[in-house]
Amino acid sequence: MKIMDGHCDALTKLYVNPKLDFGKEDQELDVSYPRLKHAGVKVQCFAIYLSDSIQQPTFDHILQMVDIFQRKIVSHSGMRFIQHVRDWHEVEAGDQIGAILTLEGVDALGGNLTHLRILYHLGVRSVGLTWNYANWAADGVMEPRKGGFTRKGKLMLRELETMGIIADVSHLSTTAFWEMVEVYHKPFIASHSNAQKICPHPRNLSDDQIKAIIQCQGQIGLTFVPYFVDSMNLAVPIAGLLKHIDHVCSLGGERQIGFGSDFDGIEQWIKGLRHAGQYENLIEALCKNYKEAQVEAFLFGNWRNFMLGNLPK
């Protein structure tokens, strides 16, 4: 079965440690070419995330990560950069693995919308608006004041919509989420979030938020972060993830379900999902509990339909 993964932080690890090799099965990289190939991952999203170790992130830092993406990931003969619908079709028709470039947090753009347009031309196709805390555009979900968007942040949303960049609400504050629903009129995603009803972590989505994503025909990348799956269990099994699938389905979101592992952005793992090469364990659990057509949709088909409808033509 083909797989699309909507979020990983391999780029950050490659930035922090230049000795890491995406082309080898390096134990420090959850996501590497050999592991993706072994698992049958057909499309992987790679996030540009500037960690807290960079105290004053700038646009130059983002450009350095774009350079790493070009030199260390899509330069690999087995990889193909997906920027347009035609790229997706060519990946599906061939043997290469598709790579989509995303941005997690707009902090380093400094409110400069020209920087945003440059990133579009460099191939960034999805933008997560915040990380956990506030930036110039909006409040993140862990910001104590629980605010929404700034005036400039709302201008950015309109620019995203005009350019056709997909907005990503994972990490966004609840207030900002609902403000975005009013301002951004295209389908949007939560690239790596689970259901708050099943696991009451602030980073997870409420039922009303899930319904809003369903209503706009967006996409939810259920994530493998253990404490987003089950906050009461130190050793989270794959079965815990299925509870989130069942809940989103109960709200009418069967066609909105995909996965966004957050591999390489986590230091704890679900049992049996330690890295991208272990997707087969998730597939086995899914096949025991759902019809084959449902499993194919969760793993790939739902993301495929969304991307073909929202990538630039």
UniProtKB/TrEMBL annotation:
One GO BP annotation here? proteolysis
Q: Which Pfam families match?
A: Peptidase_M19
Question: What is the protein name stated in its UniProt record?
Answer: Membrane dipeptidase
Q: What is the lineage of its organism?
A: Bacteria, Bacillati, Bacillota, Bacilli, Bacillales
Q: Which PROSITE patterns match?
A: RENAL_DIPEPTIDASE_2 (PS51365)
Q: Which organism is it from?
A: Paenibacillus silvestris
InterPro entries, per database record = Metal_Hydrolase, Pept_M19
- One MF annotation (Gene Ontology) recorded for this entry: metallodipeptidase activity
- Tell me which Gene3D superfamilies the record gives: Metal-dependent hydrolases (3.20.20.140)
